[in-house]
Structures are given as C-alpha cells and as structure tokens.
Amino acid sequence: MDERFNKINRLLSNYSLGKFDKRLPISSRMDEVDAFIAGVNMLGEELKSITISRNYFTNIFNTVSDMVFILDKKGIVENINKAVSEQLEYQLKNVRGRAFDELQPAGKREVFKEILRDLKKDSGPAVKETVVLSASGKRMQVHVTAAYLLDEGGNKKAVLLTAKDMTLQLKTENLIIRAIIDTQEKERRRLAVDLHDSLGQQLSAIKFFISALGETLGNREEKEILDKSNDALSGILTDMRNICFNLMPVTLEEFGLLAAVRELCNKTRYGNKMEFEISHTEGFPKLLKNLEIDIYRVIQEFINNSMKHSNASKIAVMFKYDKKNMEIILSDNGQGFDQSGPARRGMGLQNVQSRVKSHKGEIRIRSEKGKGTNYTLTIPLEEE
Questions:
Q1: Residues 219 and 334 both lie in one domain
Q2: Cα 260 to Cα 241: distance, rounded to the nearest angstrom
Q3: Which structural domain, as residue segments, surrounds residue 226?
Q4: What region does 335 belong to: left with phi over 0, alpha with psi -120 to 50, or beta?
Q5: What confidence tens digit (pLDDT) does each residue in 118-136 have?
Q6: Is the pTM higher than 0.70?
C-alpha cells in the first residue's frame, strides 16, 4: 500500500482537529495520488481561510460595546454577542429560540413587525427606539438598528439587530428637558401670581370706584357710559382670571390632577360647545407635582388642538393605574389628521412628547382623517 495514503489519512485527522497548517509534499511521480494530495492541500488552505474569517468575525462580534442579536426572519434569536450577556444578563441558552419582542415589557408594541415593514421598503436599515428588559427585570431604553444579513448569493439569510443602551444619554437629555420645563412652569406661576395680586387688584379697585361714581351721577348719558365701562372692566377681569387659570390653576396646586382636569373640562368654559367624559381607575394616586403639571399640560394641549383644528364635539379622558404604570388615554371624535404631515412635527406635539419623555414615558399617537385622534401616555411610576 502506498505510504502516501497513510500520510493523507493523518493529514485529514489533523484537519478534523482544527490543525490546518499541515501540508503534504507533491512527489515526482505526479500521478493520481499526487493530484489527490494537491486537492487535500487546497482544502487545508480553504479551511484555514474560513477559520480565520470566522474567528475575525467572532472577535468583532464579541468586542463591540453595543448589543448585537442575530435573528431569523421571524424575529427569533439565533445568537447574541458578549455585550448582551453583560448588559442584559442573558446567556445564549436563555434567549436562543425566543422572539426578540419577548424581551420587551408586557403591553409594548411588537417592534420586530415594524422593523420588517421598514426593511421591506429597501430604504436602508430600520431604526427604532424601544424598551427591553434585563434578566432581572430592569428596564433599558435602547436605540435599535436592524438590517438583513445576506449570503453569498445575495439572499436574505437573517436579521442583524444592534441595540445601543440610551440610559446615560436619555438621563442627560431628561435633565436638560426638565430644567427647561421647570423654568417655564416657574415663570407661569410667577406671572399668574403677579397678574392676580397686582393687576387684578388694581382693576377691581377701578371697577369699585366706577360703580361708586355711577351711583352719585344723575345724568343718564354719563351713567350709561360708566355702566359700559364697568361692564368692560368685568369682562377684562374675567379674561384675566382665565389667563391666570391657564397659566397655573390653583386647583392643581391645592387639590391635585384629577380635580384640576375636572375643572379644566367644565364645558361652560368652552361655551357649551364641547362634551367631556372623564373616568379613572379607583384609587388613582396623587402624583409628584412636576408629573401632575406635565400631564395637565398635555391634556390642555390636546383640548386646544381638538377645538382649534379637529372640530371635535366630544373629548374622553381616561386615567388608568396598575401600581407600576400609569396610562392616560385621550381621544376625540374630530376630523383627525395625517400622521405623516406637518401636524405630526408641530411645536405643540413636540412639547407634549418632551414632557412625557422627561418622565421616561412613552406616547403613542393614532389619528386618521375622519376618524378622530387618540393619545395614549404610558409612564412607569416606579421610575419616579
């Protein structure tokens, strides 16, 4: 038996052990066995190249600081990198075979469906923001980027999803947002007090003097002029009280959110042109003052938009509470708006989103032309 066959057998054994540096020399015979040896040597080169590429990919995969998930086209986890284990405390055996959406809190939207929808547009990677839960139940806000992994033939093989922890960045942003909002509210409160205590008292004194003067006049025409002046001052005082109420309602300061919203939703304030329906979960708690103010401002903005732009005749406000999360649902029966249009990017809506975001909350907006508008605010109370 040709000794070269024994050498080929030993070489293949080395290859099976991952030792791809061994090669067999080609003899001077240049026969079929040498041709086979040449083929085996080429196999060793290819296996070495593949192993180097695989190790290179594995090193990159596990050294990047962002979390990386390899998902199949249904969103099922096939592999994770080291960052997922470090930041979310999951081992591969704990998440392999699970849907990525299962890592989100209960009730969260199915973000992978949105990712697939965006990827089908072939307009580049899909970008989303969502929340995932660690193995110990800790919430983490993440910035997600997803793209298809292609095989050598260009076929879509899997989905590469990276998730960047936004905790520190969001904390910094929220501190800035809160500083701006709190400064605005402080100025609103100061202006409301100044208007009420200074200008309001002066106008009330002038109204008293005019009334007193009118009682001493015998000339009818002069008395009519004073009566009209007195009525105009009454109108000014009413307008000023409304301005003070909108700047900072005393009810919100003294009796809390629910009482202030009931007062805000008094239909007589809107000329009886709007019907309101307010409901809440029993035992709805008293909240931190800045959170109550922000929710009140969101509701105030929603009512203003419904009246000015939606031609709504009915607004529903619902407060829900389950000890971990608070949910406020606002809806109207107005004409709605196109969510891809400029209304979606308006300053008022941006202010609403900033207020909710500053409490680590989320706002979902649904609106269609002719089908009204719905805001759903979800705020985790344990984060407060």
A1: no
A2: 15
A3: 166-248
A4: alpha
A5: 998 877 889 998 889 999 9
A6: no
